[in-house]
Automatic annotation (TrEMBL):
Positions of post-translational 2-(S-cysteinyl)pyruvic acid O-phosphothioketal modification: 153
Protein name listed in UniProt: UDP-N-acetylglucosamine 1-carboxyvinyltransferase
Active site: 153 (proton donor)
Compartments (UniProt record): Cytoplasm
Amino acid sequence: MGVPVTDPYHRGSQDIQPHRYPAPLDALEVALTDDVLVVHGGTPLEGRIRVRGAKNLVSKAMVAALLGDSPSRLYDLPKIRDVEVVRGLLGVHGVKVTDGDEDGALVLDPANVESASTDQINVHAGSSRIPILFCGPLLHRLGHAFIPDLGGCHIGPRPIDFHLQALREFGATVDKQPEGLHLSAPNGLHGTKFALPYPSVGATEQVLLTAVMAEGVTELRNAAVEPEIVDLICVLQKMGAIIKVHTDRVIEIQGVPKLHGYSHRPIPDRIEAASWAAAALATRGHVEVLGAEQADMMTFLNIFRSVGGEYEVTDARPPRLNDPGQEGGIRFWHPGGELKSVALETDVHPGFMTDWQQPLVVALTQARGLSIVHETVYEQRLGYTEALNSMGANIQIYRDCLGGTPCRFGRRDFKHSAVIAGPSKLHAADLVIPDLRAGFSHLIAALAAEGTSRVYGVDLINRGYEDFEAKLADLGAHVERP
Ligand code: EPU
């Protein structure tokens, strides 16, 4: 019998079952749920919001602080659940985390790193995927590590086989137990030559966080090179690491015996910025996203323009005498008229991010013609389209690799391509949020639809979107807690 897919440490295509998206709530459940947002749709979002440091960088930079022998300072952190989880996990390992001298700043002091009990660590079980990145730093600091059951979004099986393979290459031993992973490095960690089967973001980060203090040189081939990874490399370099990024996805790391604390202002959250851009387009609105960075969003901006959306990049101007300066950002708007259909496929950087896909698909329901989306990063990230169809969208999902190059999922039984026929008039519905990005797309759909929708499970959105309810209010959305 195969190992059930709920075992996050197991990899085997025969064991990967289709992920189930939440069914609509029945009347009793509805009555019992208070985690609901009532959305009166049909009003364009108009106004200005600001994005802070990227969720998918700040959590990793916090883990990197474990490697230093002096305090680190991280700025502009968003107030989101993932940051709290990592803060808690660092805390039980003896890292003193305190608020810094400005809003959104943290000081992380690793002077007294210590072992934590399984019970202390397990408090954070199932809450995030970041704990897997504690392996290398804890092995360096303590010689052993315990990693609880992982959480994160339910967007497919999300195995960690590349992580474990890499850690073994460095010389770690991994003991999988039902309560989690026990790791040790009886002979220390040593540099290695290693090629990832796929340019995984997390596995690349795992290698970086382990190799920087491993003895000797590590060469990682087929590495992910997302802007968040480059920013993590900047953090590690500030700490004293020696890392070369070669062409063709090769990263070379020369291990050093000692690292110190860093001071870092992270890159802005390009996923959140694109989510608000998609919301502006879907609701025929106009949203300025302060902090959004053009260079990190080029692929998104190209698609946004191809669909018929307009944007303008505002460059930042530093403050001078008699001039308070200006924060940079990007203004996104619907210029009126009809949107155009597009064909796109998600991919690793510099491709179209998988996390941009769900919010944009809502806008694509309003485009004339057939749009095609080929999801090549996660095998089960289109199930949320069922909810959009319940609101009047016309989206069919297919097992074939449509409209792009054949991907890893083409010969397997995953519906990973979508054809969106539009424009469709969206109407209100009761929706249940399945995961973070799909959840935001549900919210956008409810905002774009005529009538009053009830969106259940909205608290999940707080995992990755800071103050989203306040931002919705700033943009003139008609939403309320019942
Ligand atoms: N994969 C494996 N084995 C592994 C690791 C990954 O098969 O050991 C596969 C995955 O199953 C997936 C692909 O490789 O099919 C890519 O996964 P990757 O490791 O790149 O993803 P991740 O590190 O788990 C991060 C972000 C995701 C984002 C992806 C892709 C964080 C905390 N999460 O996940 O963000 O979608 O990279 O860019 O950084 C989100 O923010 O909502 C989110 C899901």
